[in-house]
Amino acid sequence: MSMHSLNDALENARLTYEQHVRTCRQCHADGAACAVAKHLLRIYNNARRDRMRSGGQHTTMDHQG
Questions:
Q1: Quick one: angle between helices 35-53 and 3-23, nearest 10?
Q2: What is the DSSP letter of 31?
Q3: Tens of each residue's pLDDT in the chain, 65 residues
Q4: How many helices, marked H, and strands, marked E, lie in the chain?
């Protein structure tokens, strides 16, 4: 997988997770991540790990926005 593809996968996973957390009624009602949010976070973490393994720069959600 190319670095561009890894960057796209990471960015897509991050945006999907963040959008879900912002719009999910269950996440807001419970004050904690729902099962879908946890699954999306795992996808994001896997994409981040893949990018780091490929030699990409370290990226975390803390540095975004």
A1: 160
A2: T
A3: 667 788 899 999 999 999 999 999 999 898 899 999 999 999 999 999 998 988 766 555 544 43
A4: 3, 0
Give the pTM. Answer: 0.76
45-65 burial by CB neighbour count: b if 16+ within 10 A, else e? eebbeebeeeeeeebeeeeee
CA proximity to 35, closest of 45, 21, 47: 21
Q: Are 20 and 40 in contact (CB under 8 A)?
A: yes
Distance CA 26, CA 28 (A): 5
> In angstroms, rounded to a whole number, what is the distance separating the alpha carbons of residues 48 and 7?
9
DSSP assignment of 10-29 equals HHHHHHHHHHHHHH-HHHHH
